[in-house]
Specification:
With 148 residues, this protein is of the alpha+beta class. It has two domains: 70 residues, Roll (PH-domain like); 52 residues, no CATH class. It is built from three helices and seven strands. It has a four-stranded antiparallel β-sheet with strand order 1-2-3-4, covered by helices on one side. It has a three-stranded antiparallel β-sheet with strand order 5-6-7, with helices on one face. β3 and β4 form a beta hairpin. α1 runs antiparallel to α2. Keywords: Membrane, Transmembrane, Transmembrane helix. This is PH (Pleckstrin Homology) domain-containing protein. It comes from Rhodovulum viride.
Length: 148
């Protein structure tokens, strides 16, 4: 079974450059935005269909997203990514060699890593996703980074 807190072991001689972990404030902000948007959508849909209690949409969305967020917070914020001199190591045994990274981009509070084979990895709920992108890009273009 996938364990988001299980760290990928380093290879012999591999050195750690940085660790990336989810940020609590970014996690809460993302869930508040989702809850508000879902609430507005649900309230609008209930109003359009003639429901006499359209306000229930916003209440239900806030409760549902809030409970989900509270339930999953430990797992999401416990997931750790490690940038080494050879690879990007993710939770659950993920290993992405720097030489196999085709593109890195920012999506909201996350950084997405796309490999040459098309695999996509999401480093979620970051306080500075643009900074993480810049560090991964610098590591993969550094001498020896893309060749490892």
């Amino acid at each position: 079974m996938f364990d988001p807190k299980a760290e990928t072991p380093l290879e012999e001689g591999e050195t750690v450059r940085l660790r990336f972990q989810g940020d609590r404030a970014a996690y809460v902000k993302a869930h508040v935005v989702i809850a508000v948007l879902a609430g507005i959508g649900a309230t609008g849909l209930l109003a359009l269909t003639g429901n006499p209690y359209p306000w229930a949409g916003i209440v239900a969305a806030l409760l549902a997203i809030g409970l989900r967020g509270a339930f999953l917070m430990g797992d999401e914020l416990g997931a750790s990514w490690t940038l080494t001199d050879r690879a990007l190591l993710g939770p659950g045994g993920r290993r992405v060699r720097l030489s196999s990274i085709a593109r890195v981009r920012v999506i909201g509070a996350a950084t997405q890593v796309i490999t040459l084979s098309g695999d996509k990895h999401l480093i979620k709920f970051l306080a500075d996703p643009a900074g993480v992108k810049a560090r991964i890009d610098a590591a993969r273009t550094a001498p020896g980074g893309a060749e490892a």
